[in-house]
C-alpha cells in the first residue's frame, strides 16, 4: 500500500475498486454455495469442524476487513476536514455496533437462568474493559514525549474493539454450523461480509492522517485482529453454546468501543478546533444509517429469500 503507483491510479478507480472486489466475492459465494452440505456435520471430526469454521470465519471476517482497507489510498489524499468527516463516519459505524450489541445483551440476559448474574457480567464486561483500555491509553500518552497522538496506535485500538465485537459474529456462525443449517450459515456469511467491509475504512481512517503510510504488515495485522476473531467465535460457538459467555463477549466489545470513541474524538480535536461540525455530524449519521441498512434491512431481505431460498 506504500507503492506510489497505487496512489497514481485514477481517483474513481481507487473509490470503486474495493466494491468491485467485494462484488467478485459475493458472486463466488453465490455461485459456488460452499456451505451447501452440512448434513454430515454430526459425523465430522473435531479437526474437520475447526478447519471448516476457520475457512468460514476467514471469508466472513478477515477478507472483507482487508477489502475495506483497500480504500486507504483514496482516504489518504482527502482534505483534512473531509478526513475528519471520514473519521466521524467511522464513529457512526462504531456507535451502531455498540447499540446493536447492547440489544443483544438485553436479549441474552432475558433468556439467562440468573438475571442478576447476567447483569453483573454485562456491567463488569463494559466497565472493566473501558477502564482497562482508558488506563492503558493514559499511560501511553504520558510516555509519549511529544504528546502527539499516533493514528496507527488508535487504528490498532479500533481493530481491537472491532475484533471483540466480531467474537459475537463468530458465535452465531458456530451455532448455525453445528445445527447443520447451511442456509443460515450462508446468510450470516453474506451479512457479515457486507457488515465487515465497512470496518476496513473505519480502521484506516485514523492512519490516513499520519504523514507516512505504515508498512503493509500493519494493515494485515489490523485486519486479522479485527476480523480473525470471527474464527475464534465460531470455534467457541460450536462447542460452548453459553448465554452467559455471549453476554460477556458483547459487554467487553461495548466497553472497548466506548473507549475507542473517545480516542477518535480526541484525534479529531488534535487537528481541528471543533469535533462536532455540521459535516462531521452528517457523516456520523450516515455511518450509523449505512450500518443499519447493511445489518438489519438487507439481512431481512436475505431472510425473505431474495438470495437464499426458504
UniProtKB/TrEMBL annotation:
Molecular function via GO: zinc ion transmembrane transporter activity
One annotated Gene Ontology cellular component of this protein: membrane
TM helices/strands, residue ranges: 12-31, 51-75, 82-102, 114-134, 154-178, 215-236, 242-262, 274-294
Coiled coil residues, start to end: none
Entry keywords, A to Z: Membrane, Transmembrane, Transmembrane helix
The protein's name: Zinc transporter, ZIP family
Organism expressing this protein natively: Natronorubrum texcoconense
Taxonomic lineage from the root: Archaea, Methanobacteriati, Methanobacteriota, Stenosarchaea group, Halobacteria
